[in-house]
């Protein structure tokens, strides 16, 4: 086995040990992941970012002085992934996401993220890389950077209502990956957990950043619109494995490094350098296969394209330019009836299907009457 692969494994193990482990501490105590942020509470405030009360050095659990159970209390919600935490930007009250990056492990992440957030690229509609608002280094921690980004939400939550909504999602994802590739950057981990959406329009009253099904104060369910009513923009996040290539390097190759999707055919039992652009095509195709083709009904028209994207031989996969062109043909062939039809979850029971179909038809009639497009028009 090559030394490069050994180093990749060492980095993954070190990250898990530092950031992925849960201490199983009681709710009134911070676990080891949370302590890191608590210890930097005041310094983050000096940079203009206020953590939730749970992470204040003066925090006293609210349920200790009330009749609420800790599970129902806002400050009972702990972060789920050590390097990422929510905060309020004190300059305008906007809730943002803070991510800490160790440059030793991911030396290119901040540079690539900032490149796509540059003035030249940030305003381009085809750019679906998460915006970066700010980057700074903490005192005495030169190897650790804090990157500030918007509060996003999983791209598949809330559920898709119509085929047209799913079609618009696919369009944006293909467009976004094509945009990265046109700028000679590969994501190398664009699996489903690294695809998010901007929830600003969908959730006008927002939601709790950890218990995302609840309101900000955790007193009830977070209300939201459908994607047809309030079309979101989709984003790729996490450029920790991403790489940038010179335009003169027509066929770059990379030693395999595992991202979140462990099904990449060319990585199975091989350390041979591979085309990272072709691997990206597999990643995004497999994400759609797992989250839509295998889990939903009504999207069978995507099967041939997705099958070509996840072929075992990376040399046989289409480039993203071809993926976009083929998808445009597929989309143009879908009629209004199909686009407005409901996306059905294969796990629905009969009662759920009846309830959801009834509410779907009520919305559908209203949308048609008001001339709302079957394929949502996202914000630019």
Automatic annotation (TrEMBL):
Q: Name one Pfam family in it.
A: Pkinase
Q: Which residues form the Protein kinase domain?
A: 70-380
SMART domains linked: S_TKc
Keywords, A to Z, come to: Kinase, Transferase
The reply on keyword Transferase is yes
Q: Any keyword Kinase?
A: yes
Q: Tell me which GO cellular component terms the UniProt record holds.
A: nucleus
Q: Please cite one Gene Ontology biological process associated with this protein.
A: mitotic DNA damage checkpoint signaling
Q: For this UniProt entry, which segments traverse the membrane?
A: none
Q: Which GO terms describe its molecular function?
A: ATP binding; protein serine/threonine kinase activity
What name is this protein filed under?
Kinase-like domain-containing protein
């Amino acid at each position: 086995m090559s030394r490069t692969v050994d180093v990749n494994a060492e980095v993954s193990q070190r990250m898990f040990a530092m950031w992925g482990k849960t201490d199983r501490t009681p709710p009134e105590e911070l676990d080891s992941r949370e302590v890191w942020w608590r210890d930097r509470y005041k310094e983050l405030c000096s940079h203009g970012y206020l953590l939730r009360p749970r992470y204040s050095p003066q925090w006293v659990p609210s349920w200790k002085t009330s009749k609420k159970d800790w599970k129902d209390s806002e400050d009972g919600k702990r972060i789920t992934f050590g390097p990422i935490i929510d905060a309020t930007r004190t300059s305008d009250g906007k809730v943002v996401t803070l991510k800490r990056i160790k440059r030793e492990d991911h030396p290119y992440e901040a540079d690539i993220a900032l490149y796509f957030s540059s003035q030249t690229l940030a305003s381009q509609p085809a750019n679906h890389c998460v915006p970066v608002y700010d980057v700074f280094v903490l005192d005495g921690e030169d190897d650790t950077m804090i990157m500030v980004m918007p509060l996003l939400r999983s791209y598949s939550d809330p559920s898709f209502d119509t085929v047209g909504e799913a079609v618009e999602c696919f369009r944006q994802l293909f467009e976004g990956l094509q945009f990265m590739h046109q700028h000679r950057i590969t994501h190398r981990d664009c699996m489903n957990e690294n695809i998010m959406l901007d929830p600003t329009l969908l959730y006008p009253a927002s939601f709790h950043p950890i218990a995302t099904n609840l309101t900000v104060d955790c007193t009830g369910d977070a209300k939201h619109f459908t994607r047809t009513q309030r079309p979101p923009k989709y984003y790729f996040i996490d450029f920790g494995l991403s790489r940038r290539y010179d335009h003169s390097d027509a066929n770059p190759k990379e030693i395999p490094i595992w991202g979140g999707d462990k099904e990449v055919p060319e990585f199975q039992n091989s350390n041979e350098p591979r085309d990272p652009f072709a691997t990206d095509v597999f990643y995004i195709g497999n994400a759609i296969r797992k989250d839509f083709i295998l889990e939903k009904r009504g999207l069978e028209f995507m099967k041939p394209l997705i099958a070509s994207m996840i072929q075992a031989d990376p040399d046989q996969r289409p480039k993203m330019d071809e993926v976009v062109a083929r998808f445009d043909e597929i989309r143009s062939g879908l009629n209004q009836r199909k686009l407005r039809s409901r996306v059905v979850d294969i796990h629905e029971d009969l009662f759920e299907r009846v309830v959801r179909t009834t509410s779907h038809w009520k919305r559908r009639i209203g949308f048609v009457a008001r001339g709302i497009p079957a394929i949502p028009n996202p914000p630019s």
